[in-house]
Amino acid sequence: MRKVRSDFHESCDMSCEDYAATPSFSIDYRQNCFLKDGEPFRYISGSIHYSRIPRVYWKDRLLKMYMAGLNAIQTYVPWNFHEPVPGQYDFSGDRDLEHFLQLCQDIGLLVIMRPGPYICAEWDMGGLPSWLLRKKDIVLRSSDPDYIAAVDKWMGKLLPIINHYLYQNGGPIITVQVENEYGSYFACDYNYMRHLSQLFRSYLGEEVVLFTTDGAGVGYLKCGSLQGIYATVDFGPGSNVTAAFAAQRHAEPRGPLVNSEFYTGWLDHWGKKHSVIPTAAVVKSLNEILQVGANVNLYMFIGGTNFGYWNGANSPYGPQPTSYDYDASLTEAGDLTKKYFAIREVISMYKEIPEGILPPSTPKFAYGQVQMKKLKTVSESLDLISVSGPVKTLYPPTFTEMNQGLVFNLTLGADFLSNWTVYSLNIDEAVQQGLLSASSRFISTSSRFATSPPTVLSPPTFYAGSFIIPNGIPDLPQDTYIQFPNWRKGQVWINGFNVGRYWPSRGPQVTLFVPAHLLSTSVQNNITVLELEASPCSSGSCTVEFTDTPIINATVKSTGLYKRGPADFWSRTILD
């Protein structure tokens, strides 16, 4: 395909003065571009969140991004993913940030780092640890002394890691974002942003390119930008590219044009239709952005999965499902899409696409139905899953006070509910140790097939089942999807791993992605389900089913409480 000469070459004179051999990355305000080792540089990047993808698949996803023609990736660092309790840090396994960064470098991808402390990302509490709320009057994302003290301590752990992987230190990180879309937050605390700027500089040095990201409107940039930190904008397909970058020019009269979040898709909510952004709209706007010589990050290039309890929510309260597929270029499971190849075609008009073999979509396997049996209700299991025993109180304490998450009194109609007996639960640990199955007498259930979902609600109850994958079949185990015929709402664990929430009675997500590394061919695979509302087991077929086809766009049953849709690009809450 014929290469297109963009304004990038016109605005960035290729004859730059020689620089020293030491790696460098900077902003050239005279030529309105980035300089990489003294040469004009434009990044075409894609977002990938390592926290939403199993470590075993990081290389596969990064290779696919590289083979699409990207020269950089962008990623968030969720604070609560690495510091679940104060002072206890976890950078192992799927949380091994340094391994992820090293993979990026080995593959040939630069990194745009977004360390927060707040990240949004439709991630639980926007990445902020819930234990911050133990101080009831704390003002998050502000110069509140208690919040700042916690941020300083966390950044004292994180920023030295980032420093080691900066481009000028031989690593892949070329730019580092400060906070995230702060211009959309009510506080507008310049002292907070100044503190973060000084904090980042103290650990990362004066040479690193720090940047902010805000909506493409002057109003957002007013509180989101700060002198000394390069201001960028974000906007999606169908936006007026000229007007959007004019907003950036209001804050940055000179320097490179940057869209830090160009939306290839959009997020989903339980009870709302699956969001789809047409490929034609994406490639049209992407071409317009590249035509004017701008730098761009495609958000998301691959969305991944909100395993466990990590899915966030928007305001007014609209929770995200377990899937973070995002209608992105690569599916939740890393599969290639028509959108992927269309974007690759546009990129090829502006830069060379790497030669080599494009990794294929991973195979999927339908393991079929698995019979489930009732274990115990949650109430009957309290001796196994409660970590602190009962607490009697007039009104319920917050989840944070119980090392869990409720923040208000509960009402029935207009009446406050009082005289509570409260238990703090650690279900994950009980499931991982097999305590529920070991202590339970399996309760037989009817084998008749249900003709309709159960209509009567029942107490939250645990169910268990198991299945064997034959070890004589080549290439097993493979990725799969689990679905819950006629189940209502709950949580599922496979071999002790918390796969996430299911809610097929609400939709649009019906199946949950199960990566192959969770499964075994040498021992039986155990499934634990916590059904919160009603299972089909008392009146019909008590099974879950593994299929090779995802369903994330099913008919939905909505409460009508959440009114926003994919066109409402600036509707996201400041605290997820």
From TrEMBL:
Highest taxon, organism lineage: Eukaryota
Pfam families: BetaGal_gal-bd, Glyco_hydro_35
Domain Beta-galactosidase galactose-binding: 460-521
PROSITE patterns membership: GLYCOSYL_HYDROL_F35 (PS01182)
Root EC class: hydrolase
EC number: 3.2.1.23
GO terms under biological process: carbohydrate metabolic process; ganglioside catabolic process; keratan sulfate proteoglycan catabolic process
Keywords, comma-separated and alphabetical: Disulfide bond, Glycoprotein, Glycosidase, Hydrolase, Lysosome, Signal
Gene Ontology cellular component list: extracellular region; lysosome; membrane
Coiled coil (residue ranges): none
Signal keyword on record: yes
Domain Glycoside hydrolase 35 catalytic: 34-349
Subcellular location: Lysosome
Protein purpose: Cleaves beta-linked terminal galactosyl residues from gangliosides, glycoproteins, and glycosaminoglycans.
Annotated protein name in UniProt: Beta-galactosidase
